[in-house]
Amino acid sequence: MSDLVFSDSFIDGDFYSTSQRFSVDNPATAEAITHVSNIDKAGVELAIKSADEAFSKLKQTTATERSETLRRWYDLVIEHKQQLAELMTKEQGKPLKEALGEVEYGAGFIKWFSEEAKRSYGDSIPATDSQHRLSTIKQPVGVVAGITPWNFPIAMITRKVAPAYAAGCSFVIKPSEHTPLCAIALAYLADKAGFVKGALNVVVSENAKMVGEIMTESERVRKFTFTGSTGVGKQLLAQCASTIKNTSMELGGNAPFIIFENANLDDAVTGLMGAKFRNAGQTCVAANRIFVERSVLETVLEKLTDKVAELKVGNGLDEGVDIGPLIYPKAKEKVQSLVEDAVNKGASLIGDNKELEGSFQAPLILTDVTPEMDIYHDEVFGPVISIIAFDNEQEVLKLANDVPYGLAAYFYSDNIKQIYRVSEALEYGMIGINEGLISNPVAPFGGVKQSGLGREGGHQGLDEYLEEKYLCMKI
């Protein structure tokens, strides 16, 4: 209990062990933190059965009861903030100061939905005649299954599980095999907080395909939620079609970051540093294509180069580290491949692309990036800034929108008319205006186009786990 490191799946309020195990490695040292049991098919089915049985009990609880339980979970997460953050840094790699921030951010979803649990309202509808009374009520959708990624191993879970529990839904979640430890710790703390047994089950497996197929094909699972790549999201959506599941998907992005000539350039560069280098660039809302108005390009590059040079790369547990390792060596190989392709096609490199040990990647700036380069179209998921010059607002809007994704976008401008025009013209679900860090539990998070379906956070996040029922009564 002291370090919250557990090595088994968590089903029906207890640990579920199998003989087959795999290692969870620290990406900074490549050393094993622990070896976790690799769940079998029977374990996944048991978790769904447990969630189904828990749902029959959970849906009978009151909103106030669920609210109080969530609040106790929040208190326990905050009480163990330091332990959870250190565990996150060990299994995921992000600097400890970022991990502490994520624990608080993730806990914020629990707190928010502990309050929203009591705000699930129906409607009274004016009838068309005197003999009828019309109304609607909201009820929990049922058993929920979810798959979460490795880049935010706490927040990705709490922003799904907290609204589900608030609504009265039970949950089976599969965290990434690279970062399962935070998920198990969260489930353990939820159990201590008084969750209905079986209302939160964590299944740990290296075989995501097997788990995903069972979840999406199960008749007991009525809602499926996924955060990850667009390609995998499409496959899972297709699998959910056979049982007509309610789904929500938070998928890939290719976020533009636009700096207009009238912007406060110091603020813009500071905002860009946060939007790009948080979690070593491994976020779905990371600034990917940086559009800078040509008249201020040189000034922006000077300011940006100085700030990037100050970044310290290293083990996230070490003092003063700004950028931790990428999650595994193949992630670094992908970044290096994108940089090499861009340079070969005419991009200029600012910074020392020195070879660092293991999964560490030095921060870099690429200029003269064009649509012919792979890095222009692909999510980098690494600490590389791609600079594209533009000449006017119409041009940059066309470039920014000319991708199949629409998750997050950012722009800096001090012209209020331009702010309204650009905000409305950008085809993205979330817009940062003179701000590089936009995520907040009280606001809806989600994208348009091929970046996903549904919203997480805000009052909208609770509705994702509720179904509306229409009542027509003759009197």
From TrEMBL:
Keywords: Oxidoreductase. It comes from Pseudoalteromonas lipolytica. One of its GO terms (molecular function) is succinate-semialdehyde dehydrogenase (NAD+) activity. It comes from the Bacteria. Residues 18-469 form the Aldehyde dehydrogenase domain. InterPro entries: Ald_DH/histidinol_DH, Ald_DH_C, Ald_DH_CS_CYS, Ald_DH_CS_GLU, Ald_DH_N, Aldehyde_DH_dom, Aldehyde_DH_Superfamily. GO terms for biological process: gamma-aminobutyric acid catabolic process. Belongs to the aldehyde dehydrogenase family. The active site is at residue 250. This is NAD-dependent succinate-semialdehyde dehydrogenase. The lineage of its organism: Bacteria, Pseudomonadati, Pseudomonadota, Gammaproteobacteria, Alteromonadales.
